[in-house]
Each structure stands twice: as C-alpha cells, then as structure tokens.
Design a protein that fits this description.
The chain is built from 3 helices and 7 strands. By secondary structure, the chain is an alpha+beta fold. The longest helix is centred in the last third of the chain and has 23 residues.
C-alpha cells in the first residue's frame, strides 16, 4: 500500500524533514520516511495495510496520528505546542523560528547529501577500475 501527503505548519509553510513513522505491526517504529523540501512525503511498502497507524511529527509541534487509509495525498497541518503559543500576544505577529538545516541523525544526513556521496563513490570506483587495468599491462 502507498501513503502520501503534505505536512505544513500553521502558516502553511512546508515542514522539511518532518517524520512519518508507522506505530503498529511488525515494522512499528522501524518503517517510515521524512518530508522533502516542499513538505511532501510518499511511502510504499507491502507491509502497510489500511489499518496501519502513522505518527506525523516535527520538533516543537504537536504530533498527529493517522491510519494509512487516511493518508492519500492528505494535507496535514501541525500546530505549535501550547507552551510556544502562550508566549505571543494577540497583537504581536508570531516570531518565526529558524528551521535548522543540520540533519538530526545520520540517516537524514546521508539522504540530504546522497548526490555528493554518489559522486564520491563514482570517483573512487573509477580510480579502482583504472588501477586494475594499469596493473594488467
């Protein structure tokens, strides 16, 4: 089954690197994905059933849970926690919190830099191939 959607904050700004994680079944907390730069996500896996429950979360915002059958190009808006909201008065415009570009874990780091790492791997592979043919001469 395939799930998909777009994750936004209360200002309709995309939430890059928002987490989407399955909470039940054999793959509980082991299967998931992250939102791209536009807040969009897509995940397809044979172990996902319509009853699978997914947690949508982003640091500093209130997480939400959805069943897989609800996640068909769904637009999801995550709200700020009450602690953050109570700091602002009604007349003040809420201060935007800068989004960090630093990945929170090693997997996100590799996803973010996959093109660079693929290029480095290609160069290393080319060097190995050239050295092999040089030795054969």
């Amino acid at each position: 089954m395939k799930i998909s959607g777009t994750i936004l904050d209360s200002n309709n700004e995309p939430l890059h690197l928002a987490n989407i994680t399955i909470l039940n079944g054999n793959f509980a907390n082991k299967l998931g994905t992250i939102a791209n730069d536009n807040g969009c996500f897509e995940l397809e896996n044979d172990s996902i059933t319509p009853e699978s429950i997914f947690k949508i979360s982003y640091q500093g915002l209130i997480p939400q849970n959805f069943s897989a059958d609800e996640l068909d190009d769904k637009k999801i808006i995550l709200l700020e926690t009450t602690e953050t909201q109570s700091v602002f008065t009604k007349k003040e415009k809420p201060m935007r919190v800068a989004k960090t570009t630093q990945p929170s874990n090693i997997t996100e780091h590799f996803i973010k830099h996959k093109n660079l790492l693929a290029g480095i791997g290609g160069i290393v592979g080319l060097i190995l191939i050239l050295s092999y043919f040089k030795k054969r001469k």
